[in-house]
Design goal:
This protein has twelve helices and seven strands. By secondary structure, the chain is of the alpha+beta class. A hairpin with a 4-residue loop joins strand 6 and strand 7. The protein starts with 31 loop residues before the first helix and ends with a helix. InterPro entries: BTB/POZ_dom, SKP1/BTB/POZ_sf.
Length: 285
């Protein structure tokens, strides 16, 4: 029998024998985020699949897309209203034709979004396609799709020439209502941003102000709002929690007494870098 006596000494992170405390603590194995991602992938894999138990066929331009009533009715208020009606409620399998829609690729992408909260952009990726996606999101009442389509529009438009952008703007004012100004505000900001970069509107964009009065009005309102700095509320950069209200202008010096450092803080906006980073970080409303 061993007669030796061993003494154990624990520190905050190590045992004197060299064992890490990590092996002494049971790790968590379940991740909610990972489980939710797996769930979305499982649902997405059932979209337009011959192997899935789809009970709804949606047709557009002669192309059929296999779906599930439960999924599309939970994502689209318009589909929900149709499928809850007497014609479809008790039917084990149903079919809906969309004769008014001419872009079957956009319809397929819309239904794909209902399953995966995402959709594949076409090749080449055009801003015009995402205008169509926004229009479908309005018609079929899918709010989240409007937001994604707007983001995708911006990404595509930033890579396009003014002729392509002008065509997308013209289409957006023709086929969308956009009462919330989600897409149209993005359009106006894109155009004004180019002007601020000393890139005057080309003939293709300039013609739109004569062709589309609503676009001209949106552009004018945004330009006027952009002329004068708005008075906004900011927090002290020293971390004391103090708040101040200023109409911030580049190159001007500002002062604020910091309650933590017990001194007056001085800073400038430092141009667009300050406005994009520091200002956004400390703004309170």
């Amino acid at each position: 029998m061993c007669k030796n006596t061993y003494k154990w000494q624990f520190s905050s992170s190590l045992v004197t024998w060299g064992l890490s405390t990590d092996i002494m603590v049971a790790k968590r194995h379940f991740s909610t985020m990972e489980a939710e991602a797996n769930c979305i992938r499982a649902i997405a894999s059932s979209f337009d699949s011959a192997d899935s138990s789809g009970d709804l066929t949606i047709t557009c331009n002669g192309n059929s897309i296999k779906c599930h009533k439960y999924v599309v009715s939970r994502r689209s208020e318009r589909f929900k209203a149709v499928l809850d009606g007497d014609e479809f409620r008790d039917q084990p399998e149903s079919s809906i034709d969309l004769p008014d829609e001419t872009d079957d690729a956009a319809v397929h992408a819309m239904l794909e979004f209902c399953y995966s909260v995402n959709y594949k952009s076409p090749t080449p990726n055009t801003s015009l396609f995402h205008v169509c996606m926004y229009s479908l999101a309005e018609k079929f009442m899918i709010d989240d799709l409007k937001k994604l389509a707007t983001d995708r529009f911006r990404e595509a438009a930033e890579m396009e020439d003014d002729v392509s952008l002008a065509a997308s703007i013209r289409e957006s004012y023709a086929i969308t209502t956009d009462n919330e100004k989600i897409l149209k505000d993005t359009i106006v900001k894109l155009v004004l941003h180019n002007v601020q970069l000393s890139q005057p509107p080309t003939k293709a964009l300039d013609q739109l102000t004569d062709e589309i009065p609503a676009y001209a009005a949106d552009l004018a309102r945004a330009a006027i709002k952009n002329l004068a700095p708005l008075k906004r509320k900011y927090r002290c950069p020293g971390g004391c929690g103090g708040e101040f209200e200023k109409a911030l202008v580049p190159s001007q010096m500002y002062r604020h007494y910091c309650g933590i450092h017990k001194k007056v803080r001085e800073w400038t906006m430092a141009g667009s870098t300050w406005n994009a980073n520091w200002g956004r970080e400390w703004i309170t409303d």
